[in-house]
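Hi! If you just cloned this repository, the fastest way to understand the data is to look at a raw example. We've pasted two of them here, unedited. The first protein comes first, obviously.
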Amino acid sequence: MGDEQLWSEFLDFVGRAPAARHPGLLFDGFRADLVERGVAADVAAAQMAEVIAMSRQRNDWAGPMFDRIYETDQPEFRLEPNEFVERMTVDRAPGTALDVAMGQGRNAVHLARRGWQVTGFDLSAAGLAQANAAAGEHGVAIETVLTSAEQFVFGISSWDLIVMTYAVVPITSPAFAATIANALRPGGLVVIESFAVLDGPPRRPVDLDPALLRIAYAELLEGAFEHETAVADWTLVPEPVVRLAAQRPA
């Protein structure tokens, strides 16, 4: 099976899959689906590894997959604001904030409740609908945009805060990091948290190499860097995570 056919079958599976408690269940579900359709287990495992690799280069899967995830009534992911985002912003004066790949808006709504003017974007229509509903429930306004990181206009010196937590975007790409740095206003802060990977290829699209993360944002002033085993927002079990808060020079 060629790559394009394999990818097409993966997208078809995601589109018809039932609601899932976390992304891993959908990736594992596709492998099981391959086996059920007669693919040998070792071949299915190899094809699944190829799908995961392709998912790091494409984004057309993210919207359908996270629609399935946000439809679940038994989430196995954190619904509260990210603790590192809370900690890094608690003493900052509110300004303009951008939540990259905002999902259900847990960070965006938290920031809006603290007085920030928040914009967020995501590829999941279900996530954005829930973010807007949550904002309404808390009596705050946020701006949501259904788009990808490639299509979103980050601007130049536009944001006092940019948040990226477990975001399916090329966080450690030098070109993307430069876009984020340029989009910050002087004195603006970027706050990042995701899974950390050190040895071997990344297992997930949101796995980050801690060393590459620091290199990518080296032109900013590092305010906090943490690499530890902790309960991760998107598995709720102890895993290696990496966190970075860095500020554009004033």
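Ok, and the second one:
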Amino acid sequence: MKKRYILSPGPTSVPSEVLLAQAAPVMHHRTPQFAEIAKECFEGLKKVFLTESPVLIFASSGTGAMESAVVNLLSPGDKTIVIRSGKFGERWGELCEAYGVGFTPIDVEWGKAVKPADVAAALKKTPGAKAVFATHCETSTGVLHPVKELAAVTAGTDAVLVVDAVSSLGGVPLRTDEWGVDVVVTGSQKAIMLPPGLAFASISEKAKKLSESAKCPRYYFDWRPALKSYAKNDFAWTPAVNMMFGLRESLKMLLEEGMENVFARHARLATAVRAAVAALGLELFAEAPADVVTAVKVPEGIDGGALVKKLRDEQGITIAGGQGHVKGKIFRIATMGFADTYDVPVVIAGLEVVLSQLGYSFKVGSGVGAAVKTLAK
């Protein structure tokens, strides 16, 4: 028998309360009873998104919510700004290309954060740009980008700020209304503590106004019928009913903990992971690390792919390797969603075992010790 631990940046562990809620008998979605559940979910999501704007729910992965932003805000031939700083920043550009939307890329070296001044300069060079597409936590690099500062740049322009917060929403502060972020998208399988299958998008008044003139083809992801149904605590299309049961439970758990406490928990766990990494003589990959996923450079002479595989197959601990051109060069440990104090010593202990087996030289126990000391403070 081997107990399994999942500390990858999605999917993440799901609380038993959420799994049990999803096991309830199926309910018809066009009933007053389900409308009450939908209302609870819509209202709870606004509190997690820190917004008073509508938060739409789609039965899809987070990429579906990203696609909804592109097709509802833009028309073929429109001009936008796309910040490409990792695998998921690149996805914004790929979505724009798929719908014939033009964009000015801001290419940021993987591991580094975008500079707001570069976005301001790009907007000046691209008159008439209708949107800036950004990523909050770039999951592929572990970088947290300065969304608050980016919102300050777009605030005085006609461009809307659209943020991929798939791995950050519910784990690190993203103050949607306070900062002035127009569209925030995320998925269910990260800090929201659900299995994969739901996507969410908050929509500001500025974004809704822009969507009225958008000409990209849209049907399932069309915000117009979705918003009409939202006003009645309903859905334009059949929702993922039992996923909604789980969502209600996960939102209840997050809000009972309190979002500021949730953010503090994530920061505490990430700090402990970073302390362990430093004690092991390893180096962080991200210059501005996020509190939901820690990206670490694979030490010289160590096979990064073997490290992740041995940790998963032999130690029962799933983390993530690198993507794109950093595949085999970094590994990523997530402490998001349903993660608590003792997940950190477990993953660091497993990491020490595998590093030792692969021939990396370090003082055994130094990483675990550093993590425990940090958590004990």
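That's it. A detail worth noticing about the second one: The longest strand covers residues 79-84.
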